Amino acid sequence: MSDARAADGPQTTTKDAALSRVDGDRGTTQASAPGENEMRTA
After folding, report:
1. How does pLDDT run across 26-35, given as a tens digit for each residue?
2. What are the contacts of 18-23 at 24+ separation with CB within 8 A?
3. How far apart are the C-alpha atoms of 5 and 41, rounded to whole Å?
C-alpha cells in the first residue's frame, strides 16, 4: 500500500504515514484513522 500511495504523492504520503503512525501509537485518533484510510484508499 505504501508503494501505491508513494506513486500518487511521495511528500504527502510521507507526512500522512508519519501522522498515521503517531496517531496509531497514541491510540487517541485510532478511531479517526480508519475513516481517513478508507477515504485515502478510495
Report:
1. 555 455 555 5
2. none
3. 9
Q: Are 2 and 13 in contact (CB under 8 A)?
A: yes
DSSP 14: H
Q: Distance between CA 35 and CA 10 in Å, rounded? A: 21
CA-to-CA distance for 25 and 42, rounded, in angstroms?
24
pTM of the model: 0.19
Which of 15, 37, 9, 33 minimizes the C-alpha distance to 23?
A: 33
Report the chain's C-alpha Rg in angstroms. 10
